[in-house]
Design a protein that fits this description.
By secondary structure, the chain is of the alpha/beta class. The chain has helices spanning 24-35, 44-51, 56-66, 73-91, 101-108, 122-132, 155-164, 180-189, and strands at residues 9-14, 113-117, 140-142, 171-177, 192-196, 210-212, 228-229. Strands 1, 2, 3, 4, 5, 6 and 7 form a 7-stranded mixed β-sheet that branches. Helix 6 links the parallel strand 2 and strand 3 (140-142).
Length: 232
C-alpha cells in the first residue's frame, strides 16, 4: 500500500473473526454447546444466516428471543461466560488463520496503522493475534467490552480512529470485514471496504469495493484506492 503525499494518518481496520482467524465454525460450536442444556437448538445454517456478526451476548439474547423466552442479566452473564469458556477450550486444539493474513498485515503495517475492531472478547483477540504473529503490528484493539453498540453501528471503528489519529489532520481508512453487519458498519463510517468470503458468499457481500476469498495472492497496494477520508 502506498500513501500519497498529504499529511495525515492512514488506518486499516480489520475485523477479527473470519479476517484474522477463521474461527466462525468454532464460535458456532461453542454457542450450540452452551445453549443445548437450555433446550435451545441452533444449527450451523441458522448460525451463519442469522447470528454472524453479533457478539456473544447478542447471540444468546437472540436465541432466547426466537424461542419466546426471556432471561435476566444474571442468566445472560452465566451463559456468556460458559460460551467464552467453551470457545477457549476449542481453540486450545485448533485456531485456523485466514490464509495469507500474517504476511499481508505485516506488509500493510509499513504504510498504515493497523487496528482490530471486533465483537469478540479482548482476551480472545489478543490470544489470536499472538497465535497469528501479529500482536506487535496491531496498534489498537477495540473489542466487545469497549462499545455500547456493535456492528452494523460503526462505534468501534470510530473509537479505533480516535485512538490512532488523535492529532488534527486528515484520516483515511479502509476496512476489511467478512460479514454483512461489518460491511454496513464500513459504509456508515464512509471507509472503503474489502470483504472476505470466509463466512458469507460473494453475492452476500456484493456491496463491498472488493471481494476476496482470502489474503493469498493479494498485496496491500490493492487497498490504496479504497482509503477514504473519514470523520473520527
Amino acid at each position: 500500500m502506498t500513501a500519497d503525499a498529504r499529511p495525515g494518518t492512514d488506518v486499516v481496520l480489520l475485523d477479527f473473526n473470519g479476517v484474522v482467524v477463521d474461527d466462525e465454525p468454532l464460535h458456532f460450536a461453542a454457542l450450540r454447546d452452551t445453549l443445548a442444556p437450555e433446550g435451545i437448538a441452533v444449527d450451523e445454517a441458522a448460525y451463519f444466516a442469522d447470528y454472524m456478526g453479533f457478539d456473544d451476548r447478542a447471540c444468546i439474547r437472540e436465541a432466547f428471543r426466537r424461542t419466546g423466552r426471556t432471561l435476566d442479566r444474571r442468566a445472560l452473564d452465566h451463559l456468556a461466560t460458559a460460551k467464552a469458556a467453551r470457545y477457549a477450550a476449542l481453540t486450545r486444539t485448533a485456531l485456523p488463520l485466514v490464509p495469507g493474513v500474517r504476511d499481508f498485515v505485516r506488509a500493510a503495517a509499513g504504510a498504515a496503522r493497523i487496528a482490530v475492531v471486533s465483537g469478540a472478547l479482548r482476551r480472545e483477540i489478543l490470544a489470536g493475534l499472538e497465535r497469528a504473529g501479529l500482536a506487535d503490528v496491531v496498534a489498537c484493539v477495540v473489542s466487545a467490552e469497549d462499545v455500547a453498540r456493535n456492528k452494523p453501528d460503526p462505534e468501534g471503528h470510530r473509537r479505533a480512529l480516535a485512538a490512532l489519529a488523535p492529532a488534527p489532520g486528515p484520516v483515511r481508512a479502509v476496512v476489511v470485514e467478512d460479514s454483512a453487519p461489518g460491511l454496513a458498519a464500513a459504509r456508515a463510517l464512509g471507509a472503503g471496504c474489502v470483504a472476505l468470503t470466509t463466512s458469507y458468499t460473494a453475492e452476500d457481500l456484493a456491496g463491498a469495493d472488493l471481494v476476496w476469498d482470502s489474503f493469498e495472492g493479494h498485496a496491500p497496494a490493492e487497498l490504496a484506492p479504497l482509503l477514504r477520508e473519514v470523520a473520527g
